[in-house]
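Human: Here is a favour to ask of a fellow structure person. Comparing notes only helps if you start from a blank page. I am asking you to supply a protein in sequence and C-alpha coordinate form. Write it directly below this note and I will take it from there.

Assistant:
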Amino acid sequence: MVSESLRPGAMVNEVAERYGLKPNHLSTWRTMARQGKLILPAPEDPLEFAAALIADLKRSTKLFMDETRAPVLDPGSRKTKTGYFWALARDDRPWGGGAPPGVAFTYAPGRGGQHAERILQGFKGVLQVDGYAGYNRLIAPDRAGPDIRLAYCWAHTRRKLVEITRNGSAPIAEEGVSRIGELYRIEAELRGLDADDRLAGRQGRSAPLTADMRTWLTHHRARVACKSPLGEALAYIAKYWDGLCIFLTDGRIEIDNNTVERTISRKNALFAGHDAGAENWATIASLIETCKVNGVDPFAYLTATLTSIVYGHKQSRVNELMPWNFARRTSD
Protein backbone atom coordinates (compact mmCIF):
# COMPACT_ATOMS: atom_id res chain seq x y z
CA MET A 1 0.00 0.00 0.00
CA VAL A 2 1.33 3.43 -0.91
CA SER A 3 1.56 5.86 2.01
CA GLU A 4 -0.45 9.07 1.78
CA SER A 5 2.72 11.17 1.55
CA LEU A 6 3.85 9.26 -1.52
CA ARG A 7 0.58 9.29 -3.43
CA PRO A 8 1.11 10.84 -6.89
CA GLY A 9 -1.52 13.51 -6.35
CA ALA A 10 0.02 14.60 -3.06
CA MET A 11 3.51 14.63 -4.54
CA VAL A 12 2.49 16.64 -7.58
CA ASN A 13 0.77 19.15 -5.33
CA GLU A 14 3.98 19.36 -3.30
CA VAL A 15 6.03 19.88 -6.45
CA ALA A 16 3.52 22.43 -7.68
CA GLU A 17 3.75 24.34 -4.43
CA ARG A 18 7.53 24.19 -4.30
CA TYR A 19 8.16 25.11 -7.92
CA GLY A 20 5.26 27.38 -8.77
CA LEU A 21 3.59 24.82 -11.01
CA LYS A 22 -0.13 25.13 -11.63
CA PRO A 23 -2.20 23.49 -14.33
CA ASN A 24 -2.71 26.82 -16.11
CA HIS A 25 0.32 28.80 -14.93
CA LEU A 26 3.90 27.56 -15.15
CA SER A 27 6.09 30.65 -15.22
CA THR A 28 6.94 31.37 -11.57
CA TRP A 29 10.62 30.63 -11.90
CA ARG A 30 11.61 32.65 -8.87
CA THR A 31 9.50 30.39 -6.69
CA MET A 32 11.15 27.34 -8.25
CA ALA A 33 14.64 28.69 -7.74
CA ARG A 34 14.29 29.60 -4.08
CA GLN A 35 13.39 26.05 -3.10
CA GLY A 36 15.76 23.25 -2.29
CA LYS A 37 15.35 19.75 -3.57
CA LEU A 38 12.74 18.05 -5.70
CA ILE A 39 11.98 14.99 -3.62
CA LEU A 40 11.05 11.84 -5.49
CA PRO A 41 10.38 8.54 -3.77
CA ALA A 42 13.40 6.30 -3.33
CA PRO A 43 15.09 4.67 -5.09
CA GLU A 44 14.42 6.98 -8.05
CA ASP A 45 16.98 9.79 -8.24
CA PRO A 46 15.86 13.00 -9.96
CA LEU A 47 19.35 13.36 -11.41
CA GLU A 48 18.69 10.17 -13.40
CA PHE A 49 16.22 12.14 -15.48
CA ALA A 50 18.81 14.79 -16.26
CA ALA A 51 21.45 12.20 -17.11
CA ALA A 52 19.08 10.33 -19.43
CA LEU A 53 17.98 13.54 -21.13
CA ILE A 54 21.55 14.75 -21.69
CA ALA A 55 22.60 11.33 -22.99
CA ASP A 56 19.77 11.39 -25.52
CA LEU A 57 20.66 14.89 -26.69
CA LYS A 58 24.32 13.97 -27.11
CA ARG A 59 23.42 11.19 -29.52
CA SER A 60 22.52 13.97 -31.97
CA THR A 61 25.09 15.52 -34.30
CA LYS A 62 23.95 19.14 -33.90
CA LEU A 63 23.23 20.89 -30.61
CA PHE A 64 23.05 24.37 -29.09
CA MET A 65 24.77 25.48 -25.89
CA ASP A 66 24.71 28.57 -23.71
CA GLU A 67 25.23 29.48 -20.07
CA THR A 68 23.81 31.94 -17.56
CA ARG A 69 24.69 33.02 -14.04
CA ALA A 70 23.14 31.25 -11.06
CA PRO A 71 23.61 33.03 -7.70
CA VAL A 72 23.86 30.41 -4.94
CA LEU A 73 24.10 30.91 -1.18
CA ASP A 74 27.52 30.11 0.23
CA PRO A 75 26.77 28.11 3.42
CA GLY A 76 28.02 29.78 6.57
CA SER A 77 29.01 33.08 4.98
CA ARG A 78 25.55 34.61 4.40
CA LYS A 79 26.86 35.66 1.01
CA THR A 80 26.20 34.41 -2.48
CA LYS A 81 28.62 32.81 -4.86
CA THR A 82 28.24 32.72 -8.62
CA GLY A 83 27.52 29.39 -10.22
CA TYR A 84 26.26 28.80 -13.75
CA PHE A 85 23.43 26.96 -15.43
CA TRP A 86 24.64 25.44 -18.70
CA ALA A 87 21.87 24.77 -21.21
CA LEU A 88 22.20 22.11 -23.89
CA ALA A 89 19.42 22.09 -26.48
CA ARG A 90 18.27 20.23 -29.57
CA ASP A 91 15.72 21.57 -32.01
CA ASP A 92 15.60 20.06 -35.48
CA ARG A 93 12.10 21.32 -36.26
CA PRO A 94 13.18 24.22 -38.55
CA TRP A 95 14.39 21.70 -41.15
CA GLY A 96 11.97 18.86 -40.41
CA GLY A 97 14.36 16.62 -38.49
CA GLY A 98 12.89 13.62 -36.74
CA ALA A 99 14.54 13.89 -33.31
CA PRO A 100 12.30 15.43 -30.64
CA PRO A 101 13.34 18.81 -29.27
CA GLY A 102 14.79 18.92 -25.78
CA VAL A 103 16.57 21.14 -23.28
CA ALA A 104 18.87 20.00 -20.47
CA PHE A 105 20.25 22.29 -17.78
CA THR A 106 23.36 21.41 -15.79
CA TYR A 107 24.52 23.35 -12.76
CA ALA A 108 28.27 23.98 -12.45
CA PRO A 109 30.22 26.08 -9.92
CA GLY A 110 31.89 28.13 -12.66
CA ARG A 111 31.96 29.26 -16.27
CA GLY A 112 35.23 27.68 -17.34
CA GLY A 113 35.34 25.72 -20.56
CA GLN A 114 36.08 22.54 -18.63
CA HIS A 115 32.43 22.45 -17.55
CA ALA A 116 31.22 22.56 -21.15
CA GLU A 117 33.74 19.85 -22.01
CA ARG A 118 32.51 17.64 -19.17
CA ILE A 119 28.86 18.06 -20.12
CA LEU A 120 29.61 17.32 -23.79
CA GLN A 121 31.82 14.29 -23.16
CA GLY A 122 31.15 11.81 -25.96
CA PHE A 123 29.35 14.28 -28.24
CA LYS A 124 30.48 14.49 -31.86
CA GLY A 125 29.14 17.06 -34.29
CA VAL A 126 28.29 20.74 -34.62
CA LEU A 127 27.76 22.84 -31.52
CA GLN A 128 26.11 26.23 -31.98
CA VAL A 129 27.38 28.79 -29.47
CA ASP A 130 28.04 32.47 -28.93
CA GLY A 131 31.55 33.91 -28.98
CA TYR A 132 32.44 33.08 -25.37
CA ALA A 133 36.12 32.10 -25.30
CA GLY A 134 35.52 29.18 -22.92
CA TYR A 135 34.16 27.13 -25.81
CA ASN A 136 37.55 27.27 -27.53
CA ARG A 137 38.60 24.44 -25.25
CA LEU A 138 36.31 22.18 -27.27
CA ILE A 139 38.32 22.73 -30.46
CA ALA A 140 41.81 22.81 -28.97
CA PRO A 141 44.28 20.77 -31.09
CA ASP A 142 45.40 18.72 -28.09
CA ARG A 143 41.89 17.95 -26.85
CA ALA A 144 41.07 14.26 -26.51
CA GLY A 145 37.66 13.08 -27.63
CA PRO A 146 35.36 13.16 -30.65
CA ASP A 147 35.57 16.10 -33.03
CA ILE A 148 33.37 19.11 -32.36
CA ARG A 149 32.85 22.00 -34.78
CA LEU A 150 31.70 25.35 -33.42
CA ALA A 151 29.08 27.27 -35.39
CA TYR A 152 28.90 30.88 -34.23
CA CYS A 153 25.97 33.22 -33.87
CA TRP A 154 25.05 35.96 -36.35
CA ALA A 155 22.66 37.48 -33.80
CA HIS A 156 25.59 38.27 -31.50
CA THR A 157 27.46 39.77 -34.43
CA ARG A 158 24.51 41.96 -35.31
CA ARG A 159 24.11 43.16 -31.69
CA LYS A 160 27.67 44.45 -31.60
CA LEU A 161 27.01 46.61 -34.64
CA VAL A 162 23.59 47.73 -33.40
CA GLU A 163 25.16 48.97 -30.14
CA ILE A 164 27.41 51.27 -32.17
CA THR A 165 24.49 52.72 -34.15
CA ARG A 166 22.80 53.73 -30.89
CA ASN A 167 25.61 56.15 -30.07
CA GLY A 168 25.16 58.46 -33.04
CA SER A 169 25.77 58.42 -36.75
CA ALA A 170 27.55 55.19 -37.72
CA PRO A 171 27.12 54.52 -41.45
CA ILE A 172 29.56 51.59 -41.56
CA ALA A 173 27.88 49.81 -38.64
CA GLU A 174 24.46 50.56 -40.14
CA GLU A 175 25.55 49.00 -43.42
CA GLY A 176 26.76 45.92 -41.56
CA VAL A 177 23.41 45.60 -39.80
CA SER A 178 21.66 45.89 -43.16
CA ARG A 179 23.86 43.20 -44.71
CA ILE A 180 23.14 40.80 -41.85
CA GLY A 181 19.45 41.64 -42.16
CA GLU A 182 19.52 40.35 -45.73
CA LEU A 183 20.82 37.00 -44.48
CA TYR A 184 17.98 36.81 -41.97
CA ARG A 185 15.40 37.63 -44.62
CA ILE A 186 16.63 34.69 -46.67
CA GLU A 187 16.54 32.43 -43.61
CA ALA A 188 12.93 33.39 -42.95
CA GLU A 189 12.00 32.32 -46.48
CA LEU A 190 13.88 29.01 -46.14
CA ARG A 191 12.43 28.10 -42.74
CA GLY A 192 10.43 24.90 -42.85
CA LEU A 193 12.18 23.48 -45.91
CA ASP A 194 14.16 20.27 -45.57
CA ALA A 195 17.90 20.38 -45.00
CA ASP A 196 18.81 19.86 -48.67
CA ASP A 197 16.55 22.67 -49.87
CA ARG A 198 17.80 25.00 -47.15
CA LEU A 199 21.37 24.24 -48.15
CA ALA A 200 20.62 24.90 -51.81
CA GLY A 201 18.95 28.20 -50.96
CA ARG A 202 21.86 29.29 -48.82
CA GLN A 203 24.43 28.33 -51.42
CA GLY A 204 22.57 30.15 -54.16
CA ARG A 205 21.50 33.26 -52.23
CA SER A 206 23.36 33.67 -48.91
CA ALA A 207 26.84 32.53 -49.92
CA PRO A 208 27.33 35.36 -52.47
CA LEU A 209 26.18 37.89 -49.85
CA THR A 210 28.64 36.61 -47.25
CA ALA A 211 31.47 36.61 -49.80
CA ASP A 212 30.69 40.23 -50.56
CA MET A 213 30.50 41.00 -46.85
CA ARG A 214 33.93 39.47 -46.33
CA THR A 215 35.32 41.94 -48.88
CA TRP A 216 33.45 44.76 -47.13
CA LEU A 217 34.86 43.65 -43.76
CA THR A 218 38.45 43.54 -45.00
CA HIS A 219 38.09 46.97 -46.62
CA HIS A 220 36.82 48.71 -43.49
CA ARG A 221 39.13 46.94 -41.05
CA ALA A 222 42.08 48.44 -42.93
CA ARG A 223 40.66 51.94 -42.45
CA VAL A 224 39.06 51.93 -38.98
CA ALA A 225 41.06 52.39 -35.78
CA CYS A 226 41.51 48.98 -34.15
CA LYS A 227 40.80 50.27 -30.62
CA SER A 228 37.61 52.11 -31.57
CA PRO A 229 34.23 50.48 -30.82
CA LEU A 230 33.68 49.91 -34.53
CA GLY A 231 37.18 48.52 -34.96
CA GLU A 232 36.61 46.08 -32.11
CA ALA A 233 33.26 45.00 -33.54
CA LEU A 234 34.79 44.39 -36.96
CA ALA A 235 37.65 42.46 -35.35
CA TYR A 236 35.10 40.27 -33.56
CA ILE A 237 33.40 39.45 -36.85
CA ALA A 238 36.73 38.64 -38.49
CA LYS A 239 37.82 36.46 -35.58
CA TYR A 240 34.73 34.26 -35.77
CA TRP A 241 34.18 34.47 -39.52
CA ASP A 242 34.78 30.81 -40.38
CA GLY A 243 32.40 29.63 -37.66
CA LEU A 244 29.81 32.22 -38.68
CA CYS A 245 29.80 30.79 -42.19
CA ILE A 246 29.38 27.12 -41.22
CA PHE A 247 25.61 27.46 -41.65
CA LEU A 248 26.28 27.85 -45.39
CA THR A 249 27.64 24.29 -45.55
CA ASP A 250 24.86 22.35 -43.82
CA GLY A 251 21.10 22.87 -44.06
CA ARG A 252 20.58 21.53 -40.55
CA ILE A 253 22.57 24.34 -38.93
CA GLU A 254 20.86 27.55 -37.83
CA ILE A 255 22.11 31.07 -38.48
CA ASP A 256 22.24 31.86 -34.77
CA ASN A 257 22.10 30.49 -31.24
CA ASN A 258 18.72 32.02 -30.40
CA THR A 259 17.10 28.62 -29.85
CA VAL A 260 18.94 28.08 -26.59
CA GLU A 261 19.15 31.77 -25.69
CA ARG A 262 15.37 31.95 -25.59
CA THR A 263 15.36 29.01 -23.21
CA ILE A 264 17.67 30.62 -20.67
CA SER A 265 16.57 34.24 -21.10
CA ARG A 266 14.14 33.97 -18.19
CA LYS A 267 16.63 32.20 -15.92
CA ASN A 268 19.32 34.85 -15.44
CA ALA A 269 17.83 36.27 -12.23
CA LEU A 270 17.42 32.97 -10.43
CA PHE A 271 18.65 32.23 -6.95
CA ALA A 272 19.30 28.91 -5.22
CA GLY A 273 19.72 28.20 -1.53
CA HIS A 274 22.64 25.80 -2.00
CA ASP A 275 24.45 23.73 -4.62
CA ALA A 276 22.13 20.74 -4.22
CA GLY A 277 19.14 23.01 -4.72
CA ALA A 278 20.68 24.42 -7.89
CA GLU A 279 21.35 20.91 -9.21
CA ASN A 280 17.78 19.84 -8.59
CA TRP A 281 16.41 23.08 -10.02
CA ALA A 282 18.36 22.24 -13.17
CA THR A 283 16.63 18.86 -13.32
CA ILE A 284 13.09 20.12 -12.88
CA ALA A 285 13.72 23.03 -15.28
CA SER A 286 15.03 20.56 -17.87
CA LEU A 287 11.86 18.51 -17.68
CA ILE A 288 9.55 21.51 -17.75
CA GLU A 289 11.30 23.21 -20.68
CA THR A 290 11.43 19.93 -22.61
CA CYS A 291 7.71 19.51 -21.98
CA LYS A 292 7.07 22.98 -23.35
CA VAL A 293 9.01 22.51 -26.59
CA ASN A 294 7.19 19.20 -27.15
CA GLY A 295 3.75 20.70 -26.57
CA VAL A 296 3.27 18.75 -23.34
CA ASP A 297 1.47 20.12 -20.28
CA PRO A 298 4.17 19.99 -17.57
CA PHE A 299 1.62 19.52 -14.78
CA ALA A 300 0.04 16.53 -16.53
CA TYR A 301 3.48 15.14 -17.31
CA LEU A 302 4.67 15.37 -13.70
CA THR A 303 1.46 13.76 -12.46
CA ALA A 304 1.80 10.81 -14.82
CA THR A 305 5.55 10.44 -14.30
CA LEU A 306 5.38 10.48 -10.50
CA THR A 307 2.52 8.00 -10.66
CA SER A 308 4.69 5.64 -12.71
CA ILE A 309 7.57 6.00 -10.26
CA VAL A 310 5.42 5.39 -7.18
CA TYR A 311 4.01 2.22 -8.68
CA GLY A 312 7.35 0.69 -9.51
CA HIS A 313 8.65 2.02 -12.83
CA LYS A 314 12.15 0.60 -13.18
CA GLN A 315 15.03 3.05 -13.01
CA SER A 316 16.68 1.23 -15.91
CA ARG A 317 13.74 2.30 -18.10
CA VAL A 318 13.92 6.01 -17.29
CA ASN A 319 14.07 6.83 -21.02
CA GLU A 320 10.43 5.80 -21.30
CA LEU A 321 9.56 8.70 -19.00
CA MET A 322 11.04 11.43 -21.19
CA PRO A 323 8.53 14.18 -22.04
CA TRP A 324 8.47 13.40 -25.78
CA ASN A 325 7.45 9.81 -25.03
CA PHE A 326 4.64 11.14 -22.84
CA ALA A 327 3.53 13.25 -25.80
CA ARG A 328 3.40 10.15 -28.01
CA ARG A 329 1.44 8.16 -25.42
CA THR A 330 -1.17 10.86 -24.91
CA SER A 331 -1.62 11.39 -28.65
CA ASP A 332 -2.26 7.71 -29.40
